[in-house]
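User: C-alpha cells for this one?
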Amino acid sequence: MNCVSSKRLMRVAAVLPLVCGFVTSFHASPVHPSHHRSTITACRSATAPTESISKASDGNDPWWKTTVLPHADVATQCRKDFAILDSTVADGKPLVYLDSAATSQKPTFVLDVLDNYYETKNSNVHRGAHTLSREATAAYEEARDLVADFINANSRNEIVFTKGATESINLVANSYGRANLMPGDEIVITEMEHHSNLVPWQILAESTGAKLKYVHINKETGTIDLDEMYSLLTPKTKMVSFQHVSNVMACVNPVADMAKVIRERSPKSVILVDACQSVPHMNVNVQELGVDFIAASGHKMCAPTGIGFLWGKEDLLNSMPPFLGGGEMIDFVSLEGSTYAQAPGRFEAGTPNIAQAIGLGAAIKYLTNIGMDRIEAYEHELGDYLYRRLAEVDGVNVFGPKDGQRAALCAFHCDAVHASDLSSFLDVEGVAVRAGHHCCQPLHQALGYSHSCRASLYFYNTKEEVDKFIDALQGSINYFEELQGSNGGSGGSDDFVPFI
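Assistant:
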C-alpha cells in the first residue's frame, strides 16, 4: 500500500466506532436557515478594549474559565459572514475549524463579489474596447491598487499577481536568481522554511553553482538562531530568504532588524520574505521592512484559491527578465525578437486569474473594514489563550517560543497519539486540525519528530472553540493511553503520516 501503514489504518478503523461521544458533547450554535449575504460593514466596531479582563471567581474555577478576551467582539460580529462555520460535520457535530494556516474560510462578501463578476462583467482584461472588457479590467486593476495600499507599496507597479506565494518565490528564483547568481555566490535560508521557500533555492543553487547555506533554529528559544544567520553572511551572499512568521514554530521574525544587518554584512544581497503567515494577520508595511521582495497567498486571507502576489521594488522588477513568455507580457513582437512590457505586465503572461484577483481585492476590503489592528490584537489574545491551554495538557510538546510574541497557531507533538490518528479522532468530534510535517520536513527533522499536529486560528475563531478543541484533545489522549495500557503498545513512535 503506497505510503500507507495498513496496520495503523486497521487500528484506527477498529477503534473509531468506539469513540464517538467519548469526549464532552459540543453545543451547536443556531444554524442559519439560508446562505447569509453579509455586508462589508458587518464587522466594524465602535470600541476596542485594550486590557485583559477576568471575571469574578469563587476561587475554585480554573483560570481559563474566568478569562475574557477584550477583543472577542471581532469574532462574534464577523462569524455570521462565514456560513461554513455554522455547518455540521462528523455525524452532526458542529464544525470547529482550526486549520486557517492551511487556508482561511471565505466571507459571503467575497463570494458575492465573485458571483457579481461572473454574472455581470465576465470578460478578458486589457484586450477589448467593449463595455464588459473595460469593466473587468477596471475591477482587476482596482484589486492591484488595493493590494498596493494594503502593504503600503510605493507604486501599484510593484504588485505582480501570481497563483500564490509558491509561484512568487519561484518567479524570483528563476528570473532574478538565474540572471544574477554565479558559481561561488551564496544563498542563505533557514531550516525553518516552508518547502516553497526552500526547494526553489535548492534547484537554483544546483543550476547556477551557487552555495546554499542553512541557518538552524535555536531549540531553546524556538526561533531562528540569529547569531548563526549573521555569522553566515559574507560579501558573497547574493540572496537571503526567510519567513516572516513560521507556519510551525509560530515565531515572528524581526524582519526589519534582520534586513539592516544583512545590508551591512552583505550589501550586494537581495532579501525575500515569505509573508504568507503575516499579511493575513497583522499590518505589514513593506517600506518599513527594508526588504526587496515579499510573497503572499490570497487563500490564507479570505480570498479565493489560485491567487497571490509578489511585491518587489519597481526598479528591481524592471531589471529582471520575464519568467514566462506569451501574450500580455510583451511590448513588441517580431520574427526577429521581442521586447517586454514594464513590471508588473512582464510577469503576467497570458490570461490572468481575473476573478480570483478581484476576489483578493474584495477580501482586502473586508479585512480593512474590520481593521488589521483589531485583527492582530484579537489574534494575539486568542493565540496566547490557545498556547496556555495546550501547554497544560500532559504529554503535549508545543513547538516554538514559550513566551514573547507568537502567532495564533500551535504545532505540537503528543507522546501518546500519532498525529494522523489524533487528527482523525478530533475530526470525529468536529474539530479540524492539520496533521503531518506541514511542508516543513527539515524543520521537523531538526526538532526530532517526523510529524506534528497543528491548530491554527483566525479572527473568526472563538475562545469557546479553543475550549472544545482542548476537551476533544484530552479525551483522545485519555483513550489512546488506555488503549496502549491494555495492549502494551506505543501510539507515537510510528513515523507514518498520511496527511501532509
